[in-house]
Amino acid sequence: MSMEIAARTESLKQRARQLGFDLAGACPAVTPAGVTRLAEWLQHGFAGEMQYIERRRQAYAHPDHVLDGCRSILMLSMNYSVAAEQKESRSAGHGRVARYAGSRDYHDVIREKLNALTDFLRTLAPAAVARGVVDTAPLLEREFAQLAGLGWIGKNTMLLNPRRGSYFFLAALLTDLELAYDEPAATDHCGSCTACLDACPTDAFVGPHVLDSRKCISYLTIELKAPIPRPLRAGVGNWLFGCDVCQEVCPWNRFAPQTVDAAIAPQDHATSLDPCELLRLDDEEFRRRFRETPLWRPRRRGILRNAAIVLGNTRPPHGVAALAIAINDVEPLIRGAAAWALGQYGHDMAQTLLRQRADVEHDAEVREEIEFALAIRSAD
Ligand code: SF4
Ligand code: SF4
């Protein structure tokens, strides 16, 4: 490898660190080993409703499909961990939002930095072709991060770095240039630990490294457009959006450094939300509050469905007033979840609200939810 390639790679990494990326490693653009595992995973149906993965299955086979003529990838990480005391400062009765979603949409923040890094690359090699991606391209980012020496893929399927844990975003800069490649991370430091597999509230791991998304709270609260399957609702607990449990229990996250980037750091007011307040938001108010945040993805109907499930699981006394509004919502998805939640309360007031709605409800699925909710009381 020429001195020029080594110097170019080093300059690029240095610029990446200046821009706020914590880790940077280079790897060749090859067919990742995980492509076969992806095909098997899809075959088992573990992707659930995420048909976009199946549609782009061929594209995952080589980074060429993301950038024509791609030869190298600079893999980057950006930490979003916060101090322990900040994590614990949630208000009682509030629902939880996964940490990664507790700030402005990270895609925007990281894209700006990738654009700046691409501009810098062009100062080094004006004819270079490059593309920065974060999350949305058909690229097995964790596989390439391991290949670029950033860490190993843990049993919880997250990329883990021995000094930085797993609370970080991954991004990639693809280019047609040759770079000086890092050594792949060869050691898996999970050892005999199974903390993540044991702690998952919905038992979503089929085994080490294999996640059935259809049971994962992140999928259920963000991707799934239908009602959350009844047997999984209790496991959702107080998660309104996403879930951090399999990262929270991971010993490698105990000493992970905190982020210093204010644009990425999760904010208390965004990671702990009042489900009752959410159930009172109309379309316009919901848009105003969440349009620029990751919570926009499931839209109002998804978030309010989740809020009702959280109330059914936590049952604060004042939750019934919010559910009384939600059971008459224009969205059947929200009415159905509210009916289930009222059934969990089971007291006279909840039963009255359920019966009143039963008198006017036309949607077959919501009617079934109401009947189920009323039956809980009769079975007591
Ligand atoms: Fe289980 Fe939560 Fe991890 Fe999903 S994110 S696998 S639900 S612990
Ligand atoms: Fe690996 Fe244990 Fe962390 Fe799971 S909790 S990813 S098994 S170290």
Please tag this protein with its features.
380 residues, alpha+beta, four-stranded antiparallel beta sheet, three-stranded mixed beta sheet, 18 helices, 11% strand, elongated, binds iron/sulfur cluster
Question: What's the quick description here?
Answer:
This protein is of the alpha+beta class and 380 residues long. It has helices spanning 3-18, 34-43, 51-55, 84-87, 106-124, 141-147, 195-199, 217-223, 230-236, 245-248, 268-271, 275-278, 283-290, 299-314, 319-326, 332-345, 348-360, 364-379, and strands spanning 23-28, 72-79, 95-97, 130-133, 152-153, 159-160, 168-175, 205-207, 210-211, 239-241, 272-273.
Report on this structure.
Helices cover 44% and strands 11% of the residues. Helix 16 (332-345) packs antiparallel against helix 17 (348-360). It is α+β, with helices and mostly antiparallel strands. The strands form four sheets. It has a four-stranded antiparallel β-sheet, sandwiched between helices. It has 18 helices and eleven strands. The longest helix is centred in the first third of the chain and has 19 residues, at 106-124. A hairpin with a 2-residue loop joins strand 8 (205-207) and strand 9. It binds iron/sulfur cluster (2 copies).
Main sheet overview: 4 strands, antiparallel
List the bound ligands. iron/sulfur cluster
Strand percentage lies at 5-15%
Outline type: elongated
Strand order of the largest sheet: 1-2-7-4
Radius of gyration from the alpha-carbon trace, in angstroms: 23 Å
Helix content: 40-55%
The number of helical segments is: 18
Question: Which structural class is indicated by helix and strand composition?
Answer: alpha+beta
Report the strand count: 11
Low-confidence stretches: none
How are helices and strands ordered from N to C? HEHHEHEHEHEEEHEEHHEHHEHHHHHHH
- Ends apart, CA distance between termini: 74 Å
User: Average pLDDT across residues?
Assistant: 93
